[in-house]
Amino acid sequence: MQTTPRNSLNVEKTVSKQTEKMRRLRALVCSDRHERSARKQGATAIAGVDEVGRGALFGPVVAAAVILPARARIPGVRDSKQLPAEERERLDAIIRSMAVAVAIGFADAATIDAINIRRASHQAMLSAIAQLSPQPDFLLIDAERLDTPCLQKGIVYGDSISISIAAASIVAKVYRDAWMRAYHQEYPHYGLASHKGYGTEEHLRALEEHGPCPLHRTTFAPVRRVMELRGKG
After folding, report:
1. DSSP structural state of residue 68
2. Where in the sequence of the chain do the CATH 3.30.420.10 domains occur?
3. How many whole angstroms separate alpha carbon 121 and alpha carbon 51?
């Protein structure tokens, strides 16, 4: 499909905004400031919570909850989206070896379609939290508030400024990426190993050519559009 001048301009503006956002995020400092603040309030088991895969067209949204020891220092930890895959894998191993507790929760594509992505993300995060041992007495969450009696703080750009949230972001990303590579063996024509289910040009072309599979999120616009064109919407 040929790109019109207006569409080209919109794409350039979107890329420019994303570049500027990433520049601002890279300038943020990831530390244990929020963890120390929670401890001053009496908390002893502080869990960082984050999810990945929220914007993907395929597969589950995955959440991780991580409790780090007091005064934890893990050089290089920051938002998983800002790290290359090899560095995420390295840091994931360090986080898991150092953490007091780590847990994973998820919501599959069917659940996402049934209750919407925000509620499914919350379900995944609550599932991860419920599996922690010890149970946390304070939650640090990336820009969300969960339906739980546990004391909590939602932090905008939390995965870039809180070491616990950043650790959860990395653990969740590494876990979900491995899952997508496994799904690539089952559905090789979508290219999942490279784009991990997100709406890249490669993925959109494969969707148009092959149609969605049972693990695509049918309520997401690009998938729904293909289904409608194929008379299945």
Report:
1. P
2. 29-175
3. 7
Give the global pTM: 0.89
CA 94 to chain centre: 19
pLDDT single digits (tens) 71-124: 999 999 999 999 999 999 999 999 999 999 999 999 999 999 999 999 999 999
DSSP one-letter code for 162:
B
CATH 3.30.70.20 fits 29-175, yes or no: no
Q: Is the distance from CB of 100 to CB of 43 less than 8 angstroms?
A: no
DSSP for 174-223, please give it: HHHHHHHHHHHHHSGGG-HHHHTT---HHHHHHHHHH---TTB-TTSHHH
User: Within a 10 A sphere around the Cβ of 50, how many other Cβ atoms?
Assistant: 32
Where do the DSSP E strands lie in the chain?
46-52, 61-67, 101-107, 138-142, 152-155
